[in-house]
Each structure stands twice: as C-alpha cells, then as structure tokens.
Amino acid sequence: MNHFAVWSGIAAIVITATLGDVLQSRAMKEIGDLDLVRKELGLAAVIRRVATNGRFMFGLAFMALGFFSLLITLSWGDVSIIGPASASLTFLANALIAHLYLKENVDRRRWLAALCVAAGVFLLAR
Amino acid sequence: MTPRKYIILLAVIFFAACGDVSLARGMRDFGAVTLANLPQLFTAMLNPWVIAGILMLIGFFASYLSALSFADLTYVLPATSLSYILMVLLAKFFLHEHVSLWRWLGVALIVAGVGFVAGGPEATPGAHKHHQIETLYGPVGALGEVADHEVDA
Lengths: 126, 153
Fold this sequence. Notes:
The complex is a heterodimer of chains A (126) and B (153).
Chain A: H1 3-31, H2 34-41, H3 43-51, H4 54-74, H5 79-100, H6 108-125
Helix pairs in contact in A: 1-4, 1-5, 2-3, 5-6
Chain B: H1 3-30, H2 41-44, H3 48-68, H4 73-79, H5 82-93, H6 101-118, E1 133-135, E2 138-140, H7 148-152
Antiparallel strand pairs in B: 1-2
Helix pairs in contact in B: 1-3, 1-5, 4-6, 5-6
C-alpha cells in the first residue's frame, strides 16, 4: 500500500477517534457529575441517563469506527508510524475541537499540555 | 479539585495502564494472531490475564466517563496521559521489555504536559451544565436547577 493510503487511514482514525471523544465529553457535560447524580438518584439512574443519551451512543459508535479504522490501516502499513502518528494527532485534534465545539477554555497552558503530550506519545510509541 | 476527583483521575490512569499490560501479558501466552489461528482467539478470552485485562478496561471506561462528567476533555486527556508512563514502567519491570532513550524522552515530555494542565482549573465555568456550584441563592444541586422561588427571593 502506498503512503497516500496509509495517511488517509491515519486521517480516518484521527477524525473518528476525535469525534468519539468529543461527543462523549459533550454527553457527560449534559448528564452532570455522575457521582452527584448517583448520590441523589442512585446507580440505576446513572446507567439509564448514560445509556439513553444519543450523543453518548454516537460517541460510542465513532469510537468503534476509530478502532476498526486502526485495525484496517495497520494491515496497510507499519505500526511504528501508524500508532504514534494517530495517537499524537488525535490529542491535537481533540484540543482543537474541544475549543471549537465544546467551547472549552483551551488557553496557552492547555495547548502546551496537548503539544507536550502529543510529542511524548509519539516518542513513546516509536 | 476535591480528593474524590483526584481518586477518579488516578483510577483512569491505573485501569488504562494495568488493563493494557494485563491484556499484553495474556496475549503473550497466545502468540501472534494470524488468519490460521483466528478461531482460537476465543480460547484466549479464557486466559486469566485477558479476563483481568477486560475487567480493568471496563473499570477504565467507567472512571473515564465519570472524569468527563466533572472536568473538561482538554484537562482529562493530558492529566490521564500519566497512564502511558505507568505503562512504560510496567513494560520495563513486569514484562521486561527494553525501553529506549527515545521512550524515556517521551516520558519526560508527558510529565511536562501533565504539569501544564495540573496547575490550571479542571473545568470551564458553565461548561458542565449540571455542575454543583455555589450561587447567590445557595448551592445548585447535581440536577442544576435553582427553584424559581429561590431566584425571586
């Protein structure tokens, strides 16, 4: 498989994994602090709220797609580039989408954190 | 950040690293997966290390969702990346894998990244809709609604 196919696969992993993370974060923000919900309404209410949240389910579906994209892309190229590249680019994509879609306050401190961790994960997986 | 929240973040870190390492240890007994032995993969599910790994990854997902329910994604992801470091330590001392200088440099960068977020607030004010917050009218509960009469008072 050529470089284009491998990098398209990496792009697919990054997009689906990021959508999964961001949708789940959004769902959990809507549901509220799970520990407080459990204290007030019980564990069954926590499970019901999570399992019936549409964004959570979409997030789960995108996580599964991300996992299958990873498996397929790994069959096209070397794990030594696909693993680190997809993991570290997902960190950066998450910071960008969290800022744009989740309206999180991604200040300089958090950008530096995302960059350091992305670089660190890339080196770890080399 | 309360002690309870630190415990949840520590649980994410612990379960992520130990779950992966436990799965890796179990799959080492199984050997490389190929198309020829794919059906036998189901017997790998009976390996105690694999079972422990799956249970710990369920624990990871529960604590990860719990962390996202009170903290920003851009806080939780860097903060819990300490699990990569725990994984390197477990790989070195438990699985006896070789850890190169590059990987130690990666560990140092991750520590620096965690340091950057750890100094700041864990959540963007108002981002978590049902956050328990102290208001002019007293604490707003987990369900986030201030009763009308309290607002009017």
